[in-house]
Here is the input.
Amino acid sequence: MKKIFVLLSLLAIANLFGQEQRFQGQPPVNAVPTDSKPVQKQWKGQFAFPDQGITFSNEFDGARLNGLVQNNDSTYTLLITSENTPINTSPWYAFKVWGKRPMTIDVWLTYQADNKHRYYPKLSHDGVHWTALDSLRYVEIGKGEKAFGPGSLPEKVKMRLEVGPDTLWVAGQELENSARVNAWMDSISQKKFVTKNTIGKSREGRNLNLLSIGDTDSKNMIMIISRQHPPEVTGYLTMKSFVETLSSNTKLAKKFRKEFTIYVVPLMNPDGVDNGFWRHNTGGIDLNRDWANFNQPETSAVKDFMEGMVEKTQGKFYFGIDFHSTWDDIYYTVDPELHGNMPNLVSTWLDGLKKRIEGYDPNIKPNGDLVPTTVSRNYFFVKHGAEALVFEVGDNTPRDFLKEKAEKGAEALMEIMLERIKDIP
Ligand SMILES: [Zn+2]
Here is the structure.
């Protein structure tokens, strides 16, 4: 009896621990005004230290480095600030550094008041291939106690870097600026059933590009978007694998594209991404708060596109998904009691995903409070009846697991939607 009690107590503690460790999700989103606000543009140039032969630079798209001081021959302190305030704790940074000769330097990353270090440093020698900094070369100061959120973060960090004539790139995540995203879109549009075109322009005149995958006269449509928030690269990478699976040469994907056409806006906020912003567009607004007001060109372009397609085809969007990144993997879904064009598609799908990945238990947070529409998911569901969700991936989710979830998720979705469309007259 005693033994059983001990066992039960241990189980209870383990369970409590498990719950504490699981990300509980963000509090409900409140509607906010989305009229444009000023943003502070970053000074661009080189921070050069000729005596040591060391140069730092933020002269590339996606860079973020706002200030720098030399502490001694081999130590530098960097300041990273946001485009405006108030702002989410998602302090993006990216810079290049090189030296006339090989040397070891210490670089402190510090942030504007009330902000902390979030993104684990990644290094590259070509801006394309990235590896995480060796943890032995990384020191955190003033780390919070919490498991997730700003309370889990250190105040500042020190990186020990090897620099030399070969430029070293340092960034919070893999650098996926608009040039890189466009190159991916161009490569996938080599397929004869994929086209790339522009549905609008950002405030700074960058194209808002759309991929159309399948027959653009089809009445059965799905909508995919990502990167409303610039630093959310893991969400973008997941979207990429998801879209690659939907446009692959498998029997399933070919069959799916006969029934459904897929529309994708992979880079919702090209200005924010290329300016190295933490969260907003160049109107100073969180785009994922503008899906009721449509004050910003990026959100309006998608609205006009989707409503235009419904008008043109007299068809429907059956599914809408918006990829993001946060503290840990989570799915923000619509309350399954609420029915759109393919009732319970999302819950059936996440169930299918769970079955396909051994030991995987998706963290799902449904929400039934959808008006005003404010966020993309609510707009997709309320305006179009598209079964919709926000697919959030952790900042540190291993990249091969992102890919697995995306590929298996896309396969499960195609199977379920092909089955369900048979019942729709
Ligand atoms: Zn986001």
Remarks:
- Residues 10-19 have pLDDT under 50 and may be disordered.
- The chain has nine helices and 19 strands.
- The chain has two domains: 46-171, 178-421.
